[in-house]
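Hey, can you fold this?
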Amino acid sequence: MIIDNITSMAEIAIKHSINVALSTILPVEKYEWNKNVDDAPDRISKVNTVLKEYCESNNLVFINYYSAMVNGRRGLRSEYGNDGVHPTKEGYDVMAFVLKNTISGLI
């Protein structure tokens, strides 16, 4: 459902001549407030893989925040987030760096 929603929005934008860039979902080892999601790293990996393939197939910009922010357990590195999900200023600084390097020369 996540993939369908994102790709649908991208296709609408493309049809209206809007430039599209998609990014990875940030790494998350677990959602402390939702114990029912016990496979977050696998789900996120699947979505990120499909989004990357979609971007490659449609010649869209793909921004890979995930690789710069992931730890050894496939969660958010502690220096980039306090709760394992939401980035801190340091996390956003890394994201800004990744974004600038990805779109450099495109605009």
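Oh, and this one too while you're at it.
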Amino acid sequence: MRILIACECSGIVRDAFIQRGHDATSCDLKPTRRLGPHYQGDVRDILHMSWDMMIAHPVCKIMANSGVRWLHERPERWKLLEEGCAFFKLFIDAAHIPKRCVENSIMHGHARKLIGRKWDQIIQPWWFGAPFTKAAELHLIGLPKLPQERTKDSYDHIEPKCWKMAPSADREELRSNTEPEVARAMAEYWG
């Protein structure tokens, strides 16, 4: 399959699909942090191309439930919310790509209303072997839900990864990375 991994500079999801024999390309405004097929630029430049599947990770900080309070404290963020939701919908509406997943943090109600649809599945990294929480919404078109591989009983302790992450220059990027265990599950079940 020919797969576009949109809004990914880490190469984690791209490489999981490549390891399973797929022709996967990541795309981001930033350079890739791992060697591999990567388009550095605006995803709209290549979105129209012939892809069999797309997994998109648009920026979520404006749409995430965790930041909803900033909409009321910083009114300029409403315009950013509208722009972010329009960008998110670009992936949902890419009907020429038969299999699509748009992944994002848990959204607040204002974002959900602008997007006009609810998530299809909420997953946790611990489902797939990572010992921490980091809930993510999956908006699925033409793809089945990912099956939960593990239960909380499989772990002695599960940490909230993002909540405890220390401040740093690359904190936002680190928080946005898809966990390798989740990427492996996507490649295994959807590839």
